[in-house]
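U., I forgot to send this yesterday:
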Amino acid sequence: MTNKDSKQLVETLLATYNINKFSSSGQRLAYERGVLTGILALLICNHTYAAMDIKKLIDDRSQR
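Result:
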């Protein structure tokens, strides 16, 4: 799967959670962040390689 395909999949996923009842764009953003946080936590919990990759990203960002 390419980066473009991955991005499209995430956008499609978020669209399925779009309930169109947000009073502001900030409220929508907070909701989407919550959805993505939950999915990412599930992915990390169930896939060791995903957890290792995310830890590496954190380490790389911390060294800047």
